[in-house]
């Protein structure tokens, strides 16, 4: 479902645009709507934000893992040249 699916029919176009721009604007639009429709929109906005953040966190975790693997391989000591420690 799309966030637009939760907009009531009479919502002004400017309010719909604001709701799509940021979470804060979407929650303010929901507050202005009031009632059950506002609560439904606010819940949908929070859920969408949380799902987006979860996806971004997984992508970031994958990037960190890939970077760690690359660093490990790029800086691995060549056979026979292992660092012996402090001298």
Question: How would you describe this protein?
Answer:
By secondary structure, the protein is mostly helical. It contains three helices and no strands. It has helices at 13-21, 23-33, 35-74. It is rod-shaped and about 70 Å long. The protein starts with 12 loop residues before the first helix and ends in a 13-residue tail after the last helix. The mean pLDDT is 81.
How far is it from the N-terminal to the C-terminal residue, by CA?
64 Å
Helix count from the secondary structure assignment: 3
Helix content: 55-70%
**Computed Rg:** 24 Å
User: Main sheet?
Assistant: none
The helix/strand class is mainly alpha
What are the secondary-structure elements, in order, as H or E? HHH
User: Low-confidence parts, pLDDT < 50 over ≥5 residues?
Assistant: none
Shape: rod-shaped
Strand content is under 5%
Average of pLDDT: 81
SS elements, strand count? 0
Name the descriptors.
mainly alpha
């Amino acid at each position: 479902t799309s966030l637009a699916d939760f907009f009531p029919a009479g919502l002004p176009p400017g309010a719909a645009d604001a709701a799509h721009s940021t979470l804060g604007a979407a929650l303010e639009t929901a507050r202005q709507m009031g009632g059950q429709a506002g609560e439904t929109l606010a819940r949908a906005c929070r859920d969408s934000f949380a799902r987006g953040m979860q996806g971004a966190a997984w992508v970031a975790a994958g990037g960190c893992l890939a970077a760690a693997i690359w660093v490990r391989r790029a800086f691995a000591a060549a056979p026979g040249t292992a660092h012996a420690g402090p001298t």
